[in-house]
What we know:
The structure is a homodimer.
Chain A: H1 2-13, H2 18-29, H3 37-49, E1 53-58, E2 66-71, H4 73-84, H5 95-101, H6 108-132, H7 147-179
Antiparallel strand pairs in A: 1-2
Helix pairs in contact in A: 1-4, 2-3, 6-7
The first copy, chain A, binds a DNA duplex through residues 1-4, 17-19, 35-39, 41-43, 45, 60, 62-67.
Amino acid sequence: MPLEHAILSVLNQQPMSGYDLKKEIDQHIGHFWSTTQSHIYKSLRQLEEDGLVSVEEIQQANRPNRKVYSVTGTGRQELEEWLKTPMECDPVREAWLMQVYFAHPLDNEQIATLFEERIQKMKAQLDRYRRNTPRPADIDLLQMENERARELWQMTVDYGTAYLQFQIAWHERALQKIKALPVSHDDRGPNGNQAL
Amino acid sequence: MPLEHAILSVLNQQPMSGYDLKKEIDQHIGHFWSTTQSHIYKSLRQLEEDGLVSVEEIQQANRPNRKVYSVTGTGRQELEEWLKTPMECDPVREAWLMQVYFAHPLDNEQIATLFEERIQKMKAQLDRYRRNTPRPADIDLLQMENERARELWQMTVDYGTAYLQFQIAWHERALQKIKALPVSHDDRGPNGNQAL
DNA sequence: AGCGACATGTAAGCGGTTACATGATTCT
DNA sequence: AGAATCATGTAACCGCTTACATGTCGCT
C-alpha cells in the first residue's frame, strides 16, 4: 500500500514507465523508502486492476516497448484522500531490543560489545546517509518545481539524520548503564554462561 | 525469524506450550514486539522441523492436551550464536514521510493539520505506553530471577518512551517549519489544490 | 445463557524481497 | 570482450496478520 501511494503521487506529477518510476523513487524518497523493480511492476498491475492508473504502450525501435502509466480520475481522488488522512503511528517494534532483553545470560562485557558494535554500525550508516543524500547545492539537479517542494524534501532528509543521531545517543547512554550493571550471579569467571 | 529467536529464548528459561508462550511474550516484550497466536504456532512448527525444539504432548483430562516445547542442544547453540551476533541496523523506512514529501500540493494549513493530528496520536500512544507497561513496583509480580534481568528489561521499556518522545519532538519542530513555509504558488485561495 | 480462559490450529492475504529470465544497445 | 543502460516481467519465498474453526470448563 505505501508503495502504491508513492507511485500514484509520482505519476500525478508526470506520467512515466515502471522503469522510470524506480529511478524517480530511488532519487527522491530513496533515503527513507527503498524499493525494487519487481515490486513496482506488481503494484502497477494492481493499480491498473483497481482503475487508479491507465497504460499507454509506446512502440520503440531497437529497444523494448515502454508502458507509460498515468493517474486516472479515480486515482486522483484516491490520492487526494490519502494525502489528507494522517497516517497511523505504528507501535514500537524493534527486533534488536529482544537481544537486549534476553541478554541476561551474557556477562557485562559481552553485552557491552554488542552495543559497541551496533554503535559503530550506526555511525557508519549515518556517514553513508550524509554522503548519499544530495545536499542543498545539488537540489537544482533534481529539478524541483518550487521552493516548497524543496523544503519538504529537506525535512524528510533531516528526519533521517535526526533519527540516526537519536539511535546513536540512546545506545551510548545504554552502554553506560550496561557497564554499571550488577555482575551476573551466573558468572563463573572466564567460562561463564552456564545458562546457555 | 525474530519471533523464532524470542521463542527460543523464552523456552530456554522454561519449557512451555504455545499458549503459554503467547502470554509470556506479551507480558515481557509486548511493549516492543507484538505477536499473534497463529504466528507462534507456525514458528513452533518451523523450529521443530529444524530440530531446534522438541515437543512433549501432555494428556489432560477435561481440557485440550498441551504440547510442551523445550529447546534442544542444537537450539541452544543457535540461541547462543544469535545472542552474541549484533543485529543489523535497518535503514530508515517511514511510510508517513511519503506524505510529507508528497504534500506540496496541499496548502500550509492542511499540512500543519496533518502534523498536529499525528502529534496528538503520538502523545496518546505515549500515554498508553506509560500506563500499560508495568512500573518498577510491579516488577516483582513478573517474577524476574535477578536484578540484572530487571534492569535489562527496564532498558527496553525506556527505549519506548525515549523513542516516542523523540518522534513527538521532531514533529513539533517540523510543525514550526511547516508554518513558516512559503505559500504555495498553486494556492488560489480557499479553493486551492489545483494540482490534484 | 453467555463470556472468558484454556488449547490447538488452518487458510488466505499483505507488503515486500531475492533470484531469475530475456534481449538489444551503447559505452569503456 | 564485458559492463551498464534500457525495459519488461515471473516465481518463490519471508515474516507477519486477520479471520475462521473447534471444543471444554468455570464463572457470573
